[in-house]
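Pasting as-is:
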Amino acid sequence: MESIKINKLEIENVKRIKAVKIEPTANGLTIVGGNNNQGKTSVLDSIAWALGGDNFRPSQAQRDGSTIPPTLHIVMSNGLVVERKGKNSSLKVTDPTGNKSGQQLLNEFVEQLALNLPKFMESSGKEKARTLLRIIGVGEQLAALDLQEKELYNKRLAIGQIADQKEKFAKEQPYYPDAPKELVSPSELIRQQQEILSKNGENKRKRDHALELHAERNRLAEKVNALKEELEHYQNQLIQVDHDMNIAYKSTEELQDESTAELEASIANIEEINRKVRANMDKDKAEDDAKEYRDQYRVLTEEIDQTRKNKTSLLNSAELPLPELSVKEGELVYKGQQWDNMSGSDRLKVSTAIVRKLNPKCGFVLLDKLEQMDLQTLNEFGEWLKQEGLQAIATRVSTGGECSIIIEDGYVKGQEEEAVESKPSWKAGEF
C-alpha cells in the first residue's frame, strides 16, 4: 500500500505567514529554516490545521494586521486537493475526479501524531512504549506478563529474605554433637528413682524388723532368767523367736542398697541436656527451612526467566516498526538503548516509524525545532527517510545550507515579489 504525502502547499495570512509556496521533497527531509519569529512554525501549524481539522486550528489563525482571511491549499500525492479559505475557513476536499468530501476522508490517511510528532517525542518512555504496544496488538498480553513477572519477583524477593534469615539463624545457633537426638523425659528417671527408693525403704523396714526381733529376744531372755518358773512356757517361745530371727538375719545378708546419685544428677542435669537438644533441633529446622526456601527461590527464578522468555517471544513474533525496536520493563528500547540514551537521529527514526505504523497510509510527519540536532544527525535522519520512502517537513532556527527554504517576515525568501497580499491570485491546484 502506497503511503500518501504532501506534494504542494500554499499558505496565506495564517499566524505569521503572509504568503508561502512550498513543494516538499517526496522522500526525505524538507527543512524550513529562518530566524526566530519569521513564520517557520506557522507553516507546520497551517499544515496541521488544513489536514487535521479544527482540533489543530490556531487560537488566532488570521495573521495580525491582515484583513484577508486565511487561505490554505494543499495538494496530496493521491491527487486530493485540500482547501481552507473564507471567513469561516471552511474545509473543501476534492478528489481527482472532482468529487467533494470533508474531514472524514482526511482522517483515513492522516495520523494525528504525524501532525504533532514532538508531542509523541516529549511523552514519557512508558507512554511511548504503550503506544507501540497498542499498535502492534500485544499491549494487554505484555501487561499481563509484566504483572506476572512483578508478582513472581516480589514473591521470590520475600522467599529469598526468609531464606537468608533462616541461614543466618542456623549459623548463629550453637550445636552440641554429644547431645541426644530426642528430648529427654524426666518422668522415666523419676520412676526409676522412686522404684529404688521404695526398694531401699523395704530393705530398711526389714532391717528395722530384724532389730526389733533382736530386742524382743533380749527382753525375753532376761525374762527367762528372771522368771525361771515361766521357763518352759517362754523357752518354747524363745525357740520360735530364735528360729524367726535367724531367718530374718539370713534374708538380709544378701541385701544391697543401690545409689540414686547418678539418677539425681541426671534429673538435675536434664534441663541442660534438653536445652542442647532443643538448640540442635532449632539449628536442623533452620537449615531445613533455608533449603526449602532456596528451592522455592530457584523455582520462582525459573518461572521469572520463563515469563521473560515469553515476553521476548511475544515481541519477537509481533510486527515491530523497526528492527531492534522493542519494549523492556515498560520502556522503549532501540539498539539496546532506552529513549534517554538514544541518539537524536535514532529518536527521530523511532518516532517516525511508530507514527507510520499507527497509520501506514500517512507517509509524512511534521517536526518543529530541529535546531537541537546537529548536521550529522539531520543527514542521517534524511537518508533514513529516503530509504523508508517517508516525507518529513521540519523547522530549524537556521539560515544555513541544510535548509530547503528560508522564511523571512512571513515569506519564502525569494518569493516576496510573487506574493500579492491584497487579493489571492492562486487557483485551486495551480502554482
